[in-house]
Amino acid sequence: MNVFGLTCKELADEMSRRYGKGIYHAAALYREVFKKGNTSFSEAPEFSRSISFTRQLNEDVRLPSCRITEKLEDGVTKFASLLGDGHSIESVIIPAQGRTTLCVSSQVGCRMGCRFCVTGGMGFLRSLTAEEIVWQVYAARFVLNCRIDNIVFMGMGEPLDNFENVMQAVLVMNDQRGLDIAFSHITISTSGHVDGIRRLAGFHLPRLRLAVSLNAAEDGLRSHLMPINRRFPLACLKKELQAFPLGRGGVIFVEYVLLKAINDSRDDAKRLAQYLEGLPVRVNVIAYNAGGSTTYAPPSPEEVLRFCGWLAEEKLFVCLRQPRGQSIMAACGQLGALLAEGIHGKV
């Protein structure tokens, strides 16, 4: 019985089917695991009075076969997890004033092939299960003892290419009887997977946040940088974003990675503003983080600020995201580099 992959209601249904028990025992099990980080629950009062039931439950409960194998720190904490089949993933804990964000992975590698992304260069190995995604939150909270307030699906993989498992993990994370992370504190980032955005809209979760990695507002350049644009070109993507349901005051976050002399000109800024016209957006500008490739380079700090100024002149809401964790390959676009090289700092 896979507790990490079930909401409390689903767990109650499963326990009713297996043991004739219901929400009382399911909520207790959920509390022990997700509120207390306790996977040995036999001493909880709800179970201590029924030795035979508790013994059977202990035999049936399946915990994720994952473990943290590496941890590196540089203002942020990156940890690598070894999965049951021998594959590894990376996750990043990002502290900020008043909150801590966990960047989770949704796949081992990625099939999108974005040219500036280390993970994309790994190719696609497999998608994570819901329990493997949820385990990253559990590990950050109860193995590394970090308070986690926000979740961003910006780690390894394209979340909307693993739609069912990602959405099940989101529902488990949100469950108030367990991890209790509000939808408004969960962001799903996509490279522009239009079919996935449409399916996400169908869930009618207006508080769940959507981020789109854009990086160019001209089809030729974007298709070169992000092959997914050949399948879902910019006009198709914009149409889906216009239809995406947002709550009152809601916005779509647009991620724009600046590549020196590639997408950082005044014309690029104007094209971006024209493309985003009519959409409720906030633009996060991110200077390219080198990942071992010499194909691209980051603009200078002055060039980054200049580009942000051009966007502001076009009346866009702009946020310059400061790079963190570059020395441990934990910054945007860098996850997977050390896995490929086999270089880590031990826990």
TrEMBL record:
Subcellular locations according to the entry:
Cytoplasm
Q: Which PROSITE patterns match?
A: RADICAL_SAM (PS51918)
Q: What is its main location?
A: cytoplasm
Q: Which InterPro entries did the record assign?
A: Aldolase_TIM, Methyltransferase_A, RNA_MTrfase_RlmN, rRNA_lsu_MTrfase_RlmN/Cfr, rSAM, rSAM_sf
Q: One short Pfam family name for this protein?
A: Radical_SAM
Instruction: Give the keywords, sorted.
Output: 4Fe-4S, Cytoplasm, Disulfide bond, Iron, Iron-sulfur, Metal-binding, Methyltransferase, rRNA processing, S-adenosyl-L-methionine, Transferase
A GO-annotated cellular component: cytoplasm
Domain spans labelled Radical SAM core: 96-324
Under Gene Ontology molecular function, one entry of this record is: metal ion binding
Family listed? Belongs to the radical SAM superfamily. RlmN family.
NCBIfam families per the record?
A: rRNA_mod_RlmN (TIGR00048)
Q: Which PANTHER family has this protein been placed in?
A: 23S RRNA METHYLTRANSFERASE, RADICAL SAM CORE DOMAIN-CONTAINING PROTEIN
Q: Write down what this protein is called.
A: Dual-specificity RNA methyltransferase RlmN
The species this protein belongs to is: Desulforhabdus amnigena
